[in-house]
Prior knowledge:
Growth Hormone, Chain: A; 7 helices; single chain; globular; mainly alpha
Amino acid sequence: AAVPAGMLALLLGTLLWAPWRTLHGAPLAELSGDHGFQVFLQKNLEFTRKIKGDVAALQRVVCDTFQLCKEEELLLVRQDLGITQAPLEQCHSRTFQAEACFSQIRDGLRIYHGSLAAVRELLPGHTGLVETLQLDAANLSSNIQQQMEDLGLATVTYPTESRGPLPALSSHFHHQVGGFFVLANFQRFLETAYRALRHLTRL
């Protein structure tokens, strides 16, 4: 089931609160012992885990339906298709930049919202789950954007060449492999976003 809008607002408040308060000079130590702050962070991590679980469920369907299960067996086809990963280098702990990281999460969610259309076509029996994922991605992305605007934060827009991870697919097999890599890349994207959020809980 889709996450209610009110819950998304709470989750996004958490997503944005920790780094921005730090940037504006409020000691994070003041917040780290606050029960409500910790609850918000945990809910945010749970929401990310929920989306990851939905992606994993679709990966199992692709494996069972098309026998596309192991990424290493498909790397040459991936190279031919030119499928790319949405960037999240600003979210790695060594180079963590809060505004840039959340801008990349927002942009990446938009990319995968579009790319999941190929998975929906590939798995007509699982349309509901794919559409739930698309709704989660779209709501999270638009709400991050709104929160950034409300807080007067700098919005970073990344080059358009990173916005097309799924090219035109010429055959049904390529469509299947394309769907496989959309899900594999989305799962990696979510894992990096999850680590960035978990990093904030440890500051």
